[in-house]
Amino acid sequence: MSAHTQDDLNAVIDGIPDRTLPKIFHVLTGGAMALGVFGFLYGRFFSEVGTAWTWGSFLVGVVYLLAIAQGGVIFAIILSGTWANWGRPLKRIGEVLGLFMVPAYLLLLVFLIGGTGIYVWHPGTIIEGGPMPLAVHSPEAIASKELWLSPMFFVVRQALAVLLLLVLDMVYIRHSLRPDMMMAKARLGSRAPAWWDTVIGGETDLDAAVKNSQWWMEAMVPVIAIAFALVFSLLGFDLIMSLSPWWFSNMFGAWTFASGVWLSLCTMGLTAMITLDWLGLRKFIKPKVTHDLGKLMLAFTMFWAYTGFAQLLPIYYADMPEETDFLLVRLFLPQWAWLAKLVAVMCFIAPFTVLLSRGIKKMRWPFAGVCFFIMCGLFMERSLLVLPSVYFGDYFPFMDFLFVNITMYIGFLGLLAAFVGRMLTQVPPLTLTDPALGDHPWDVHVHSLDHGHGEH
Fold first, then answer.
1. Residues 6+ apart with CB under 8 A from 399
2. Contact 436, 84 (CB under 8 A)
3. How far apart are CA 187 and CA 231, in angstroms?
4. Angle 30-36-37 from CA coordinates, rounded to 5°
5. Counting beta carbons within 10 angstroms of the beta carbon of residue 18, is it exposed (0 to 12), middle (13 to 18) or buried (19 or more)?
6. How far apart are the C-alpha atoms of 393 and 128, rounded to whole Å?
7. pLDDT for 133-176, tens place per residue?
8. What is the mean pLDDT of the chain?
9. Taking the CA atoms of the chain, what radius of gyration do you get in angstroms?
10. Distance CA 84, CA 1 (A)
11. Is 77 exposed, middle or buried (0-12, 13-18, 19+ CB in 10 A)?
């Protein structure tokens, strides 16, 4: 099956029942979530920027968490669809991130129920001067846009589209977990968590379960990939782009969902580096695994910049002044231009430069730092997309950004960490029965002079 021995797998299985989260983890995540609640309440009732800014910040957190969760599943199906070996030690971490789709979906529902007033086209908008007429380029667009942006249709399609994707994700993850839980339960006996029986469903033939699992996962690759592209394009167009309903970009959906996968890769890399010893995965997640993950992150860094520039270029060469307002506000107004420059540095210039290094991609804590740096950069990027459409002040409210946006961001990360940490104590941290777990017999990994950096 792989270069890993059965003893290596048994050691991972034996660690499951005794794996607990340290008290400091509960204190930190609980404090982070409390801080996030404080930020929301402060912004809603006490800050100068008010309700629209607060719900805009909440929207940033929702699209951010949805991207992390769904991106973990997309990483798993990429491995399944391409029969790739290199990332299999990370696959279960990606699937655990995918399980976070459940709380992320609940947060989306909260926004759909209470936060849609930040859209200027909404009849009950809380944006000053609204509701605004949907001025568009053609009579046909006027008719279609009024229907498309009707409040009830808007809410229902977001809820149903993400629910469909959530169901597909859960089916895929269940088929991945089932044979691994069977194998682990056979060794652990009564020490295995009782809820595993719900996933196992009475199955006793491990070989048959493995074959059935692999068939289902490979069969679902095109289904989830197509659903992901359609649903996350819809979310990009509806949740973010319709904040400025007079601006259009055909590539906006692809740009946002691709950067969402990039965000999830960084989250997965950070999680793996932090939990490496706690999960007992040091023999599996070796420096060459993080090196390959870093190369994929570098590719997404370049793709983010390419697709971002590809949206700007047609506006210039096709001479479309009606589409420049969205960009002029974010790139040239002094209250937002600094944030745009910061995004350019954090999402392209710095990660592109750093990830060119072979050594950093193989060193545990420097690689974790790069992952977190990009995660923060993409939070700033989502903030730049959303906030200028809900706040029209002549200055940037730095203190409110600190006490509302940053605190809510910390709260969302605390919720993510608490959920993922809890799930990693409950499920096998590796895809134990995966035939592709380990090195391919033809795999050749070239080492340079920095060989061994990742061991320190």
1. none
2. yes
3. 40
4. 90
5. exposed
6. 11
7. 776 556 666 667 788 889 999 999 999 999 999 999 999 999 99
8. 91
9. 23
10. 14
11. buried
Enumerate residues 6+ apart whose C-beta is below 8 A from 104.
62, 65, 66, 68, 69
Residue 23 has which token pair?
A: 């008290």
Average pLDDT over residues 358-369: 96
Distance CA 311, CA 316 (A): 9
Q: Are 378 and 400 in contact (CB under 8 A)?
A: no
SS3 labels along the chain: CCCCCHHHHHHHHHCCCCCCCCHHHHHHHHHHHHHHHHHHHHHHHCCCCHHHHHHHHHHHHHHHHHHHHHHHHHHHHHHHHHCCCCCHHHHHHHHHHHHCHHHHHHHHHHHHHHCHHHCCCCCCCCCCCCCCCCCCCCHHHHHHHHHHCCHHHHHHHHHHHHHHHHHHHHHHHHHHHHHHHHHHHHHHHHHCCCCHHHHHCCCCCHHHHHHHHHHHHHHHHHHHHHHHHHHHHHHHHHHHHHHCCCCCCCCHHHHHHHHHHHHHHHHHHHHHHHHCCCCCCCCCCCHHHHHHHHHHHHHHHHHHHHHHHHHHHHHHHCCCHHHCHHHHHHHHCHHHHHHHHHHHHHHHHHHHHHHCCCCHHHCHHHHHHHHHHHHHHHHHHHHHHHHHHCCCCCCCCHHHHHHHHHHHHHHHHHHHHHHHHHHHCCCCCCCCCCCCCCCCCCCCCCCCCCCCHHHC
Q: Tokens 């730092």 identify what position? A: 369
Place of tokens 């589409």: 323
266 C-beta neighbours (distance < 10 Å), count: 26
Q: What is the token pair recorded at 321?
A: 């002044």
Query: Tens of pLDDT along 387-430?
Result: 999 999 999 999 999 999 999 999 999 999 999 999 999 999 99
Q: Which amino acid is at 314?
A: P
pLDDT of amino acid 1: 41
Q: Which residues of 341-367 are buried (b: 16+ CB within 10 A; e: fewer)?
A: eebbebbbebbeebbebbbbbbbbebb
**Encoded amino acid at 401, one letter:** F
Q: How buried is residue 237: exposed, middle or buried, by Cβ count under 10 Å (0-12/13-18/19+)?
A: middle
Q: What is the pTM of this model?
A: 0.93
The pLDDT tens digits of the residues spanning 70-109 come to: 999 999 999 999 999 999 999 999 999 999 999 999 999 9
